[in-house]
Amino acid sequence: MTATILHGAHERAPSERPTGFCHAIAARTVRPAWFKHCLFWAALSFLCLVATPAASSDVRRYPRLFDSYELASQNLRLFPQWLAVMRTFRNGPCEADCARWRAFIASIRSADLPTKLKEVNRTINGKPYRTDAENWRTGDYWATPYQFMQKSGDCEDFAIAKYMALRALGVPAENLRILAVEDLARGGYHALLVVYVANRPFLLDNQIAGIVPAGNAVSYRPIYSLNENGWWLHFTLGQQIGSSRIPTAADAPPIQPGQ
């Protein structure tokens, strides 16, 4: 099944313009090794404070994303925009273009999983990239899929629309994550959707035309990922000992409450 979902693996979608969350330039400051280790242990302590432990039998073992390790938490209060999008989309009124959204979902509801993934990725990637400043007169806004169908959006809006579409098509939440990364090639932050198929991670990315295995995107450094059940802080051993910057509590999320 996994081989059949690959399509246009190295084709690039139209470039995004540098603005907001998707291309906020990451500040880089060289720190001594002891400082990096202190930040790492601060991140561990932070996760211990915010995590809500699950029973060991309920913990799923995910493959490593971009060779990173991850620390899990069920506390989504750090992500008010994500909570607001889920609440508005699922419990709010039918917004503009919801009929078109529902027709799209109905048109592929009976398809097999590879077809659902391809059609969701192709249809949503077909929308033009628009900044939050253009759409909402603000630096950062997370749109519902209805709003996205009407006005399009930026990187996290593409990822959210794909997430909600696949959930509506029966893909379990545990197989989906919205992933925030540092794009080392372009020099900023980016968001995309990860889908686990047979426990292998694939990327649905508005910067890439087709669906690709996570290992193909060598320029991405994961920061955090989330779904409706929780979130994960990502780090690598190389970042602890050799990088000028490692993820800390301040990186989760880079978008602060109220923005």
Write the topology of this structure.
Layout: H1 33-50, E1 69-73, H2 80-91, H3 98-108, H4 113-125, H5 132-136, H6 145-151, H7 155-168, E2 176-183, E3 188-197, E4 200-204, E5 212-213, E6 220-227, E7 230-235, H8 237-241
Antiparallel strand pairs: 1-7, 2-3, 2-6, 3-4, 4-5, 6-7
Helix pairs in contact: 4-7
What does this entry look like structurally?
The chain is an alpha+beta fold and 259 residues long. The protein has one domain: C8orf32 fold (Roll). It has eight helices and seven strands, in the order αβααααααββββββα. It has a seven-stranded antiparallel β-sheet with strand order 1-7-6-2-3-4-5. Strand 4 and strand 5 form a beta hairpin. Helix 4 packs antiparallel against helix 7. The longest helix is centred in the first third of the chain and has 18 residues. The protein starts with 32 loop residues before the first helix and ends in an 18-residue tail after the last helix. The C terminus is likely disordered.
